[in-house]
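dumping the sequnces here before i forget
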Amino acid sequence: MTSTTDPYAGARETTEGRVYTVTGGDWESTFTGDLPAEERLVINMGPQHPSTHGVLRLVLDLEGETVTKARVVIGYLHTGIEKNAEYRTWTQGTTFVTRMDYLAPIFNETAYCLGVEKLLGVEAPPRAQTIRLLLMEINRVASHWVWLATGGLELGALTGMTNGFRAREKCLDVLELVTGLRMNHAFVRPGGIAQDLPDGAIEKIRVWADDQDTELAGLAKLLAGQPIWQRRLKGVGYLNVEGCLALGVTGPLLRAAGLAWDLRKTEPYLGYEDYDFEVPTHADGDCWSRFVVRVEEMHQSLVLVRQAVDRLEPGPVMVEDKKIAWPAQLALGADGLGNSLEHVKKIMGQSMEALIHHFKLVTEGFRVPAGQIYSAIESPRGELGMHLVSGGGTRPHRVHVREPSFVNLQATAALSEGSLIADVIASIASIDPVMGGVDR
Amino acid sequence: MSEPIGPDRGMFGVSGTGDTSGFGGLVRLDPGAAVVPQSSERPYGGYFDEVADRLAVVLTAGFDTAVHRVVVDRGEITFFVHREHLVALCQTLRDDADLRFELCSSVSGVDYLDTGTVGEQDAARLHAVYHLTSMTFRRRIRLEVAVGLDDPHIPSVTGVYPTADWQEREAWDMFGIVFDGHPALTRILMPDDWAGHPQRKDYPLGGVPVEYKGATIPPPDERRVYQ
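..and the predicted 3d for all of it:
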């Protein structure tokens, strides 16, 4: 082989072998002058990007790999739920709100129904309240599993994702057993819940809680002690209590910054004041703290579930008032789940008044005295508030949802500006935004 | 609890003919026609009096100048605020050691179309509603500012509560309330080039055209309703 000299790749012999120096094109002439003072690069991340938690769009200004400015664009999943709710009855509203933060449907329904009950001036019976609490805590575990699974996926911990979704699916099995649906339950209704727990549910929930202990222990082994996981999270996405309050950030982020603000303790509802549980906090205010706080919250939710199961007393699950209570309980018939045959017999054969009530409640709905209220509960992501305005009719005049995902997402810039682009992913994951809730 | 609200006709209060079949011709009520908030009398009860008393002491503009109506209903207090005093009021509420409303929980818009007290029928249709939380004292209050369509300007409280940023953008997007002094008042949920403010009560809803036999589905606000 004859050796020719390549004008663009000069070669020289070294002790390690022949080394080529590649040149060519106009690179040398391009960079002979002064380099520009700044090398700003504007990167558009999302709205379809696997690591931005759904249809979230980030506009990042980069200097090298450092983010100098982070802007957030939302609205890609706006479905007009608040507007739609104004054109349906108060009862139908549960079907809308349950679809907002689709990882915490029971919380949406409960916050909404507590609000409607406050407007009506009624209170759900104790058994209904306990079942609501029970389902919410199961839902909180499920929601935190998804946070962990997707967060793990985004940071490259793929086994965290598979294990997390496996554990979450077990939570959804329990919710499906009770409500009939994995998600979007519309199970909590103004005045109570749609139906009582089915046979065997209590035993299933106990078995589920024990199994979740095993899953959480496995999680501790898989992630908590792992050096890569720790290095990706520790010291990343710092936000202190002052920053949280200024930006309105609540929930695990606030508690991970050190403030034990949990509406279950500070403004108890549904009898949370009678339960014995802890509000976990952490002092560091970084992504690692949020991981620790959320995992501990899952343990505490299991504590609450076990207590709630022990406290369940037999009783009605819907208010007595026939002007409000949904007229029919569901029952399993030969052709599937539907209105119970006894109820149909009664309204068609025996009681004209019951028939009228059924007709009026189902077609027209109940009237809610005019006024406005704000009802807030602690969702897995923070303060979930419902600002409900009634004009005195059978439909809401206005339903506004103070979504914790929406408010918390404002902290994106504070969490990620000045950090590396890879840490933006960790920061966003630690906020745990659900775009269905952000955009509504 | 019933004083601030208009006539209560019972849970199934019949209005018009009481016909629910639709054959008698249905009457569409103006949405929110019954909302006529009137001032509550002292004592307000609970911590509401303490908050009001403290505000009366520390507000430089004077309580009666800044607040024109106080309504206590269903265990919640609402201060109806003149817009020019809103920011100073928020600043006081946040910073005063005896008030300490550190968290602005929620900002929302409400459109009270065809309502309002007698004499100001169309004056103050758009309301911005602020829910403030005191974490120190575990209290909640509500501020409400009302403006008309001809001059829908309210000063922004983002300087006091940065969390109001997106929530004010949402209220602008959905109701067309202009928050003066907001750092970047742009649409947030609707597309940038969207026309109109969809959550206003008079915003037309779209009907769905269907292909069969020339039929159309009317938009929800034009359908027959049992109200």
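Confidence is low (pLDDT under 50) at residues 1-10, 19-36, 116-121 of chain B.
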